[in-house]
Amino acid sequence: MSKEMSKGKKTVKNKAEVETREKPKQHSWKVAFLLSLFLGFFGADRFYIGRTKSAIAKLLSVGGVGVWWLSDFILIASDWRKDADGQPLKH
User: Fold this and answer.
1) What pLDDT digit, counting tens, does each position of 37-57 carry?
2) Which pTM was predicted?
């Protein structure tokens, strides 16, 4: 295996450099829950967990006329919702 590996436009010089990349920060479940409860109609919970595109859609539709807000609230409360990086919310 060569020492240089190409990944997209970035070139990684060695395997150790790939392994030492930092993991994204986990988001708090409590903060996401409270944002969903009080500001969920405006997409604040989705902005917080990093789902920006759907947060803008939720904001413009006022929480999907309540349906989207309720489904997000249930998903966060039951601990099914993951952040934009696919990580579970931290308790």
Assistant:
1) 999 999 999 999 999 999 999
2) 0.73
Q: For residue 52, what are the contacts with CB-CB under 8 A and spacing of at least 6?
A: 46, 84
- Give the Cβ contact number of residue 36 at 10 Å: 26
Sequence-separated (6 or more) residues with CB below 8 Å from residue 11: 4, 5
Q: What's the pLDDT score for residue 13?
A: 59
For residue 7, the 8-state DSSP code is: E
| 55 in any annotated domain | yes
In a domain, 6, yes or no: no
Q: Is 39 within the bounds of a domain? A: yes
Residues 6+ apart with CB under 8 A from 43: 54, 55, 56, 57, 58, 59, 63
The rounded distance, in Å, linking the Cα atoms of 50 and 69 is 16
**Overall number of domains in the chain:** 1
